């Protein structure tokens, strides 16, 4: 692409993001604020694509605008009718405001300057290290290599954070009431969209080893499949029984940790895989992480414990 | 030859995209806009996809791109039906 | 060809801005959903154009995901309108 | 491309500022959650803008991986916040009834 065209594109995308953010934050109706936020996610995905971050663009398209949008719309639905809060603002003391702005401005500017110095072409950036070690990582996609091999600690803890959020949501009580059974249009749309989502999730999981994709994107798509089945209100669908769902949800963190400990037992450090096995182990971890992310996102979308978890006393269906 | 064909398709696609947006701005009524916008947009994306598919040179990628168009078509058909019903519901409440 | 793709990217981005302005002018919720749908289609087109013009085939997958999630969003938008059934 | 990094980096800082502004000043909790999400996108933008190395070079993979992690953590936090909000609303409804 020519440079002029790129520059115009950059300015247009930046303007879009800015206008959408302001409109979403200050829209009078909350429903419209959420619609604007979902469009904001779409434009963000385009910005990631423009900045050559296809992995992030995929994740943003699936999680940022998709699952987060569905979550927010569900939260909007269970508000009390009549409580439509406009965009009203508080007026705190100006000292508080000044200090807050100074802190955020300084922090962000400093971190940006730091990153800029670190990552600019002359500095011995981390990217060279990644490229040099990529052949030993077991995968060919550098982002997957960083996530599941070089910085596997981060990803393990990230799964633990997701799991912690899930525990928090489950502790808050039963799930939201189910939506009413949908009409024929939605039912048919869901009927062919669900298998397509599942197939695409499997494809992204597999392709993540050498091209953009991976466990997060795949997990988010699987969760989206669950969410639309839930939204269709079909009474013949249900989640796996309580114990299986729990096992799936904990599986991502669990298998990751077991593999890490096994690597330790074989003489390495925690999460230091043997080089020959790295590809297989990463795929194993990713499969369980995908299922676990999907289960967790779906459970937090339900907003609490599924109904069939409570019906345990009679021992009928656990 | 293929370049020329794909250029024609891409430019045609852009034309319909712009037509759709103009429709969104100019037409007076939600149902009119729905009628015009969804048709123009899907045609625009279809032509764009055809033009781009000719440039890909890989059968699997071509099929994937065509699948994207089919998906958008089906989703927007269902979506416009749902939006139209929503509009009619709103009108029914008011009258 | 790359010239044409660059021009197409810029035109489609302009179209995106115009649709957004049209969307912000319309207050009704159904109009906003319609505009969001238009913006989604536009976004899929732009993503595909970026995939070719930047030579990143991975972005085709991103366009596929956007198309799938646009359908999910349509369901999520419209299902919200009905009252929840208390069970 | 340095201009591009600077443009998007500044945009990220502005978005984070806008998000923080709304997160502090809005009354409605759901709007605050929305604002914190926009703040997060601003921070991600700073990272990705710095990873960008021009139209012809591959971008740096490490910030991409960090942002991917960040997106998942952000959605987990959003979900927990929304569940807390629902519990809060139910609590207030009970309080109103008495």
Q: Characterize the biggest β-sheet of chain D.
A: none
Q: Which segments of chain D are poorly predicted (pLDDT under 50) over 5 or more consecutive residues?
A: none
Q: What does the radius of gyration of chain A come to?
A: 22 Å
Tell me, what is the CATH class of chain D?
Mainly Alpha
* Helix proportion of chain D: over 70%
How many DSSP H or I helices of chain D? 3
CATH architecture of chain D: Orthogonal Bundle
Q: State the end-to-end CA separation of chain A.
A: 58 Å
Residue stretches of chain A low in confidence (pLDDT < 50, at least 5 long) are: 313-318
Query: Main sheet of chain A?
Result: none
Query: How many β-strand runs of chain A?
Result: 0
Q: Would you tell me the overall average pLDDT of chain A?
A: 82
* General form of chain A: globular
Helix and strand content put the structural class of chain D at mainly alpha
**Largest interface, and how many residues on either side?**
A-D, 95 and 77 residues
Fraction of residues in helix of chain A: over 70%
Could you provide a short overview of the structure?
The complex is a heterotetramer of chains A (318), B (95), C (87) and D (98). Chain A has helices spanning 3-26, 30-50, 54-77, 94-119, 126-133, 142-150, 152-171, 184-207, 215-231, 242-265, 278-302, 307-310. With 318 residues, chain A is an all-alpha fold.
Write the layout of secondary structure elements.
The complex is a heterotetramer of chains A (318), B (95), C (87) and D (98).
Chain A (H helix, E strand, L loop, with lengths): L2 H24 L3 H21 L3 H24 L16 H26 L6 H8 L8 H9 L1 H20 L12 H24 L7 H17 L10 H24 L12 H25 L4 H4 L8
Chain B lengths: L1 H25 L3 H27 L2 H36 L1
Helix pairs in contact in B: 1-2, 2-3
Chain C lengths: L1 H24 L3 H25 L4 H22 L8
Detailed description of the structure:
Chain A is built from twelve helices and no strands. Chain A has helices spanning 3-26, 30-50, 54-77, 94-119, 126-133, 142-150, 152-171, 184-207, 215-231, 242-265, 278-302, 307-310. In chain A, helix 2 (30-50) runs antiparallel to helix 3 (54-77), helix 8 packs antiparallel against helix 9 (215-231) and helix 10 runs antiparallel to helix 11. Chain B has 95 residues and is an all-alpha fold. Helices cover 93% and strands 0% of the residues of chain B. Chain B has helices spanning 2-26, 30-56, 59-94. In chain B, helix 1 (2-26) packs antiparallel against helix 2 (30-56). The model of chain B has no long low-confidence stretch (mean pLDDT 85). Chain C is built from three helices and no strands. Chain C is mostly helical and 87 residues long. Chain D is an all-alpha fold and 98 residues long. Chain D has three helices and no strands. Chain D has helices at 2-25, 29-51, 61-97. Chain D is elongated, with a radius of gyration of 18 Å. The mean pLDDT of chain D is 86. Chains in contact: A-B, A-C, A-D, B-C. The interface between A and D is large, with 95 and 77 residues.
